[in-house]
Design brief:
By secondary structure, the protein is mainly beta. It is built from one helix and 15 strands; from the N terminus they run H-E-E-E-E-E-E-E-E-E-E-E-E-E-E-E. It has a 15-stranded antiparallel sheet that branches. It is globular and about 55 Å long.
Length: about 270
Amino acid sequence: MLRVQLTLLSAVIFAMQSGLAQAESAAELAKQALNPVAAMYSLPVQYNWDQKVGSTGNGMHSVTNVQPVLPFELNNDWNLISRTILPIIDQHGLAPDGQADKSGIGDVTQSFFFSPKKPTDSGWILGVGPAILIPTGSNDLLSSKQWGLGPTAVALKQSNGWTRGILANHIWGLESSPPDNKEKVNQTFLQPFLSYTTDTYTTYGVNTESTYNWQTHEWSVPINLTVTQLLKVSGQPLTIQAGPRYWADSPEDGAQGWGFRVALTLLFPR
């Protein structure tokens, strides 16, 4: 009888330890999913829809961003994180003659972050490196038609369920005379972000993805409100995200009012 009781007690303790380990693993995975320079393979696919675009004020514009993240271990202290943004664009009704109605691939932004494996003594996670603009656009209207280069950096802190930080870059066009009467690329991107993750691994977040064009001296400022849930489907960890976005500022022909975002991210813990 005593042996049976000890066996049952051992099974209960093992189950509790296993459940605790799984909870700790899920909590760590939720944190890594919010960290732009986490040493974890991931594949985010993000869909953004906006309205009231173009000279007509009635155009619609959508961008599906495919954003693979690839970490590389450099040594015992440093990682190199590759982040790619490949936009797939669909736009309609921007001009009365319909000539701006286009669908295709936009220019790729490729970033590399050199990131210390350990946070600073105060808990900040850092990354810095180059950002490269690659003119992969499938149509003249969807591309800047020029290469660009500049610095990028990220800083964030995670504690007590909160994630806060900022990601930024600046890209200059490398051609002195851009082709096809294109405007020279000279823009700053700022993405401050703040989120809170609950015990059920639901994350409520807010960020802006602001761009300042130094050639035209104009801001584009969408404010994104998101809800993200960590899940496992057939053993595959992933996050799903949805939420509205509001354009606080934009160029004269830019998006106005409300839009929305949905995203799916496949996670591949190492």
